[in-house]
Amino acid sequence: MTSSVVRATPESVPQLVASAAALFAEDGGRRDPYLDLSWPRREGPAYFTDLVHRNDSQCLLALSATGSPIGHLIGRIRRADPLRPGAVVGVLESLRVDPAHRETGVATALTEEFFAWARESGANQASVTAYAANESAIRFYRGRGFAPFELTLHAPV
C-alpha cells in the first residue's frame, strides 16, 4: 500500500465532506430513494468540524503517496446504556475508498486504525451498518470480523 492514514484536522474537513458526498452518491444514492444526497454538502461542514474536535469520535483520511485524499473513515464511541449496560461500542459510521484505490489495502488500514482507537477508547465491541444490497461492503466487513447481529427490514406502506 502506497498510502497513509492520518487523523483529520479542522483544515481537512472539506476533504471529509467531499469523500462523504461521494459515498452518499455511490452507495446510498443507488440503494435508498429517500436518502438526502445534499446532506454532506449542506450539513457536513458543521458535522465533521464538531467530530474532529471530540474525544469520542475519530475522523480519518487516507492519503495517496502524493498526499491527495483517497478515502475516509468516521468512527464514534457509543457508551453503555440501560438496555445494554455492558456494551461500549465502537461504531464505524462511515467508510469510503476512492474506486481507483480499492482492493489495495486502504480500507483495511483505515479499519485497523479504527479498531485500535476503539480499543483505546474502552470499546469492547464494534458495529457497522451496510446496505443489504452492498455485497462487497458486507464481504469486506465480514472479513474484518463483523458478523450479523440485528436485522432491519423495510416495507412500503
Can you put this structure into words, describing what you see?
It is a single chain. By secondary structure, the protein is α+β, with helices and mostly antiparallel strands. 37% of the residues lie in helices and 22% in strands. It has 4 helices and 5 strands; from the N terminus they run βααβββαβα. It has a 5-stranded mixed β-sheet with strand order 1-2-3-4-5, sandwiched between helices. The longest helix has 19 residues, at 13-31.
Which key phrases capture this entry?
22% strand, alpha+beta, globular, 5-stranded mixed sheet, 157 residues, 4 helices
Fold blueprint:
Blueprint: E1 4-7, H1 13-31, H2 39-53, E2 57-63, E3 69-78, E4 89-97, H3 106-120, E5 125-128, H4 135-143
Parallel strand pairs: 4-5
Antiparallel strand pairs: 1-2, 2-3, 3-4
Helix pairs in contact: 1-2
The count of β-strands is 5
**Poorly predicted runs of 5 or more residues:** none
Mean pLDDT, as a whole number? 96
**Order of strands across the main sheet:** 1-2-3-4-5
Largest sheet: 5 strands, mixed
What structural class do helix, strand and pairing data support? alpha+beta
Write down the overall geometry. globular
| Number of continuous helical runs | 4
Any idea what the radius of gyration is?
Answer: 16 Å
* Estimated share of beta-strand residues: 15-25%
